[in-house]
Design a protein that fits this description.
The complex is a heterodimer of chains A (708) and B (326). Chain A is of the alpha+beta class and 708 residues long. Helix content of chain A is 34%, strand content 14%. The relative contact order of chain A is 0.05. Helices cover 15% and strands 40% of the residues of chain B. In chain B, the strands form 5 sheets. Chain B has a 5-stranded antiparallel sheet with strand order 1-2-3-4-5, with no helix packed on it. A 4-stranded antiparallel sheet of chain B has the order 6-9-14-13. The chains are: A alpha+beta (708), B alpha+beta (326). Strand 2 of chain A pairs antiparallel with strand 15 of chain B, so a sheet runs across the interface.
Chain lengths: 708, 326
């Protein structure tokens, strides 16, 4: 909504792509660009090898162009054969590509924003040129101009007559009406072009002041001499310099008065009457009721259909146009007249509409009924000139060609007013009926059909383009289907019987595919890999070993139960393994057994705690026993007996405690299952164990000293 | 006949027999069947037999003669081959823009004599001798002696627009066992060169002039005085709306026209098959970037990944993209 949008921007010239690299002052036919490639090789030598390759590339110039396509030109002003062009206007031509007028210019832009275009618009009166007659061996048509330098625009001012027109504001706010901030406005321009390339175009304006009531021919001619020579079929390399003008004279100029042209058109100027002049002549007036509609004769619609002959319609209907008079501004009787024609088919349906509907429905009738049954459904008039029939009494056997039912696919409608059984269709006043039963709408629909018929090739092309590579995709789908079906046959013939005989064989046979077949989210290979059965069973060497006629298999003593075909199952159940689990030879004392023996006696828990807490109690008990023994030597009688019993029981207690204490010391976990490095360190040391080198000691010394 | 080129070696099996028959009964025949291996030392092995009526004498022989000689082909320098290829004029091609928006007809030129580039075209430099951007071991049957991986870049004004893919017989450039020679496809699409173009669509101009769109508005009405408003600014929305019917929008080249014929962006497209590095366990893609146009590139990527992370050994494989499970 901002005002900035309704702004035109203009650029004096524009270049894009490789053309930007073109430098001035080249003496050759075309501009040249050097290209350097660097070839790099690495992998063997520590530093990469490099080689450089240089080549000079030429760029197409005006001397290579021998024609411009019509579609490049989007507009000429005035159009071809306009005979009242305003003489105060300048003719111009517009091109779709923004950089087109400068694309082949073999020069770099000058410092003062000037770049000569490679084509120019020249407007000549009929007296100033002659048509070129001899077009043999000439790629372009040409004209002969005697004094080109006076009627052609000045060669050094051509830069001024071409520009780029952009329908958007490319400048920045507060910048004024002109800007040389190229970086900023070109970035904006590029964004605009990416978004909508239609927003900009290039224009070449003729510099000629036109006279009144004069016939003119406009020509698009090459600006550079190389372009002129190429257009005439001569060698463009004969140009004196790459930027020489096509209408500058030089010695040895071939066919000096001939000028080829890429495009031409004709127009005449009027005396006056440009848009502004006409607008100022406008006067306000009430609109007549006749503005807009056209009368259409509907008395004889053809195809033997009865006409609309209602008396009040006078045999016409009024076809509406683009302009229409507002109903409110009409007088009541005028309005009644308009509405009479608008509602000509009331009461609906009109007899003509009934007949037309029956006629259109014939196409659908023929699906069920033969022509001789269906044709009498239509109340057709007898043909004006009777067809001579051998047996007149029989009905016409041939089906009739019926008018089209417009919008049948869009409205999904095959019949109008009545269905196949003859009962009226409801609703019968929807848009399909309105379109097909009103002659005025049928006319418009006919124009639409005509447009489609005229452009049908283009529309079909576009439709194919819209679906894209559907044919190729379908071909590949069919090939895939074929491959799938063949795979099924192959599976049924070969793999299925194998599966029925032995699942194991099928598994081994399909081994190369195991990495590709998915089952429950994992490949078969992975499942085999993580199972008891190792994947090596399905490997090629294993298959080679296991082949049924192999020497090994034949020589092995297989039994009923043990067969090479059941190997996988037996591996899976643990019956067979590549290396059987280790077994302890009989009669060997293992660590676990020793630990069991050592820890076999059960020490009561309170006693164990007591022993752990007070290990000196054993010593006390020993001293008590010693004291008791000394006391016994001097004792006698009952006391002696009592002492002996006490001593014996204390000794037994001591012995038991000593054994428990010894057992307690070694009952640290020494079983294989609960050994840890700490527990091994805690084990009591064997006094005669030491780590010793097997080498003689002096040799160890020699190694340490590095002498050996 | 079996021939191996480096080192050069061949085996020829020869079998010949001559027999004389009278009324269909063999009277006399000589038969010789042997295999000749070579070159030096030559070795001939086989059986010769001679039969006369009912007697047959046969003898086996195994003879070796000649001195041993090294027949391995010399390693070859690849850089000169590539340089020579890239210097050939026929490997440089100036392509016209693909959209056929050339809009001019050009003079016929001799493509073998001059290299002429269209201002909006692309310069294509490519060769079919050695694949680029891929580790190679050999060229033909000769080992590469100077480098194993080659690449090309542009250093002057033009920029690289893309890689050019050529079909290379991968077995000519990488050492493979016979099984993979048979199971891999014969040709892989690999980089052979590059496309050059000017830097994008880069625009150049020098000056900008702008003008506001302003009109003189005259309102004509029978009930009022003729009313003139000077320098009426056109509403921005109306301005863009009116532009939709201008002559450029009706041109067959315009975006507006093309959009009428092609209103949808989506269409059926056929792609060449890609190859993906995936896990052997579940066939899921290893990484999102592990997708390649050629099997050889995918395998090279796999080897690189395994080299960086040895724990990946035997966990990855290369499969066609349609087999990837999602």
């Amino acid at each position: 909504m901002s005002d900035a949008i309704s702004t035109y921007s203009f650029l004096p010239w524009l270049r894009q792509g490789i053309a930007n690299q073109i430098q001035a002052g080249s003496s050759n036919l075309r501009a040249e660009i050097p290209v350097t490639l660097e070839l790099k090789g690495e992998g063997i030598s520590p530093s990469p090898l490099t080689q450089s390759i240089t080549r000079t590339v030429q760029v197409y110039g005006p001397g290579d162009v021998v024609g411009i396509e019509k579609r490049a030109i989007v507009k000429t002003e005035p159009r071809h054969w306009i005979t009242n062009f305003e003489p105060n206007y300048l003719p111009y031509i517009e091109f779709y590509d923004e950089d087109f007028p400068w694309r082949y210019t073999p020069a770099a832009p000058g410092s003062n924003h000037r770049l000569t275009p490679w084509i120019m618009l020249v407007v000549l009166t009929e007296a100033e040129f002659k048509e070129g007659k001899n077009i043999k061996d000439r790629p372009l048509p040409y004209i002969e101009v005697e004094n080109a330098s006076s009627v052609f625009p000045k060669a050094d001012q051509l830069w001024a007559w071409a520009h780029v027109h952009v329908n958007q504001d490319l400048g920045a706010a507060g910048e004024g009406m002109s800007s040389t901030n190229t970086e900023a406005f070109l970035t904006k321009f590029q964004t605009l072009l990416d978004q909508n390339p239609d927003a900009a175009y290039s224009r070449i304006v003729s510099s000629r002041k036109l006279g009144e009531s004069t016939a003119y021919h406009a020509f698009l001619v090459p600006v550079f001499e190389s372009g002129r020579l190429a257009g005439l079929g001569l060698d463009p390399a004969k140009t004196p310099s790459v930027i020489a003008s096509a209408w500058a004279d030089y010695s040895g100029r071939e066919q000096p008065t001939n000028f080829p042209y890429y495009h031409r058109w004709y127009f005449r100027t009027g005396t006056q009457g440009d848009f502004e002049y006409l607008v100022r002549l406008l006067q306000p007036k009430p609109v007549d009721k006749r503005v807009g509609p056209r009368d259409v004769d509907v008395q004889n619609p053809g195809s033997n259909l009865p006409g609309i002959t209602d008396a009040e319609l006078n045999g016409v209907l009024q076809l509406g146009g683009a302009l229409r008079v507002p109903l409110d501004s009409l007088k009541p009787e005028e309005r009644a007249e308009v509405e009479k024609y608008e509602n000509w088919d009331q009461p609906y349906p009109h007899p003509f509409q009934e007949a037309l509907a029956a006629f259109i429905n014939l196409a659908d009738d023929y699906i069920e009924q033969p022509p001789e049954v269906a044709n009498p459904n239509v109340p057709l008039l007898p043909p004006a000139v009777g067809i001579e029939d051998e047996d007149d009494d029989e009905a016409d056997q041939d089906p009739l060609i019926t008018p089209p039912l417009y919008g049948r696919w869009h409205g999904l409608t095959q019949r109008l007013l009545r269905d196949r059984t003859g009962t009226p269709i409801t609703p019968n006043d929807n848009w399909v009926h309105e379109l097909n039963l009103d002659p005025r709408h049928r006319m418009t629909a006919g124009f639409g059909t005509d447009v489609v018929k005229t452009n049908q090739e283009e529309y079909m092309d576009a439709a194919w383009e819209q679906v894209g590579e559907v044919l190729e995709a379908n071909r590949r789908i069919r090939l895939a289907q074929l491959a799938k079906e063949i795979s099924w046959i192959w599976y049924d013939r070969h793999l299925k019987p194998l599966r029925q005989v032995s699942q194991e064989k099928a598994l081994i046979f399909t081994a190369p595919l195991h990495k590709r077949v998915m089952d429950q989210g994992f490949t078969v290979y992975h499942q085999l890999n993580t199972s008891v059965v190792v994947p090596v069973v399905a490997s090629t060497p294993m298959r080679r070993v296991l082949r049924s006629r192999g020497r090994l298999i034949r020589s092995l003593p297989f039994t009923e139960q043990i067969q090479p075909g059941t190997l996988l199952e037996r591996i899976n159940s643990g019956e067979v393994s590549a290396a059987p689990p280790k077994q302890t030879p009989p009669g060997v004392l293992t660590v676990d057994e020793a630990a069991e023996i050592l820890g076999s006696e059960v020490v009561p828990n309170p006693v164990r705690d007591w022993l752990r807490r007070f290990p000196w109690m054993l010593l006390v008990l020993q001293l008590v026993l010693l004291a008791l023994a000394i006391w016994l030597v001097g004792a006698s009688g009952n006391a002696f007996t009592f002492g002996v019993i006490l001593f014996a029981s204390l000794f037994l207690l001591y012995d038991q405690l000593r054994r428990w204490a010894a057992g307690e010391g070694s009952s640290l976990p020494i079983g294989e299952a609960d050994q840890t490095p700490d527990s091994v360190d805690d084990l009591s040391r064997s006094p005669d164990f030491m780590a010793r080198s097997t080498r003689p000691r002096n040799e160890v010394w020699l190694i340490w000293l590095g002498l050996k | 006949v079996l021939i191996q080129f480096s080192p050069f070696y061949f085996i020829i099996e020869i079998s010949a027999s001559v027999s004389l028959k009278v009324f269909g009964a063999g009277i006399f025949s000589i038969r010789l069947a042997f295999s000749l291996e070579g070159p030096t030392p030559w070795r001939a092995r086989g059986t010769g037999s001679l039969s006369i009526l009912f007697f047959e004498i046969s003898a086996d022989f195994d003879i070796t003669w000649g001195e041993s000689r090294n027949t391995t082909l010399e390693p070859i320098k690849v850089m000169p081959i590539l340089k020579a290829e890239f210097e050939k004029l026929q490997n440089w091609r100036a392509l016209l823009p693909s959209s056929s928006n050339l809009l001019v007809s050009l003079r016929k030129l001799d493509p073998s004599a001059e290299l002429v580039l269209h201002p909006v075209g692309v310069l294509r430099v490519s060769q079919k001798a050695v694949p680029l951007d891929l580790l190679i071991d050999k060229v033909g049957s000769q080992k590469a002696s100077d480098a194993k991986k080659f690449s090309i870049a542009v250093t002057s004004d033009l920029t690289k627009a893309g890689d050019v893919t050529e079909q290379f017989a991968i077995a000519q450039f990488q050492s493979m066992d016979d099984a993979s020679k048979l199971s891999r496809r014969a040709y892989d699409p690999l980089t052979g060169g590059l496309d050059l173009s000017a830097q994008g669509r880069k625009l150049r101009a020098s000056k900008l002039v702008r003008r506001r769109v302003r009109y003189e508005e005259i309102i004509i009405d029978s009930n009022y005085k003729r009313f003139i408003r000077r320098f009426y600014r056109l509403n921005g929305v109306l301005f863009t709306h009116f532009l939709r019917a201008n002559s450029i929008s009706r041109s067959v080249l315009s975006k507006a026209y093309r959009h009428k014929l092609q209103p949808f962006d989506e269409k059926v497209a056929v792609r060449e098959e890609n190859f993906v590095v995936a896990f052997q366990a579940n066939n899921q893609t290893y990484r999102s970037e592990a997708r390649f146009a050629s099997e050889a590139m995918a395998i090279a990527y796999l080897h690189r990944q395994v080299g960086q992370n040895p724990s990946l050994h035997d966990t990855l494989h290369v499969i066609p993209q349609h087999e990837v499970s999602v």
